[in-house]
């Protein structure tokens, strides 16, 4: 199974100063920053998925600035993302239309011509047909609503027009037909239609809200309806704890941002490690948010009758305690209490009862004790952990949080490549 990282310009400043909490003075965004495949010694994925919604265009803004979007279109994905085929010869660059961003519209805003132009400008190796998300999921063959039927028809009609038009991009481009449906049976029927049109690579869309059981039922039905030689891609597959479950349906590739996002979006599972039985294990990052320029935090402190100076003092003591704990100069318990003393002002302000807050602190105390006590950064050989040490376990600002995300990609990809998960083969 090949893993594509769904990029949204996730980079770090390689010269970031952790103690001064500063970016390099002359840093130029993007040019001087490192993407995960640049910052780590090897790419922690088999390719990238670039959504049109992230790049944006004249009509819709994405995550790219306008000059960045123009450069992307001018230079192509590999040059812009500095992911050259010469260095990553078997890698994939897959494009999609970002159906989630136009989910509320009656029809997709994109046409065949502008979609192909995007794929051609980007130099994509694979590109998805234009699809429209279906939100219902039932066990019935009949559509639960006219809207579901309509969206299914729109997706198939676009796919039918996309395939012959995509031949203009040459043999180096693989068109990918997107499956949308409201049930396992309707998804299987859509897959069979796409194969009948001539597609031999299909992408399953709309899985984000589905449970792993529903996904498995859908994949079983799809697989039964198409020949084994037709490859399957899972679009936006975030349930990475269930890769073994989907692997048996002959899934060739999937994309996700999950390992990077969990570093700073998950409540507990922020730092990946290799656990018992060589499965993924997780650690909670130690939250020490920045006090300076944080109006919300300063307001809270004032309500707690704490002046700014005292708040900054607590923050500095928390950071210092974690660093001294890492060198062995301070006991784990003392470091955890220093972090929690600051966390009392820095973390919650939702008017919860004292009892509820005490319970929250007990959870954090035990999570932080495990993190600082186990010292997982010492067991990892990735560049992030080697260079940043305990800083990567501190939940604070983009440069630490995204570095932790890159470390997660390194661990995740390392486990994925192990034979039990299926060795990564040549480009299908
Ligand atoms: Zn690491």
Helical amount among residues, as a percent range? Answer: 40-55%
Ions, cofactors and other ligands present here are:
zinc ion
Shape: globular
Task: State the low-pLDDT regions, or none.
Answer: 421-428
CATH class of the largest domain: Alpha Beta
What structural class do you assign from the helix and strand content? alpha/beta
Strand content: 5-15%
- Mind telling me the CATH superfamily name of the largest domain? Queuine tRNA-ribosyltransferase-like
- What is the average per-residue confidence, as pLDDT, rounded to a whole number? 92
C-alpha-based Rg, rounded: 24 Å
In total, the number of strands is 12
Q: How is the biggest beta sheet arranged?
A: 8 strands, parallel, barrel
- String of helices and strands: EHEHHHEHEHEHEHEHEHEEEHHHHHEH
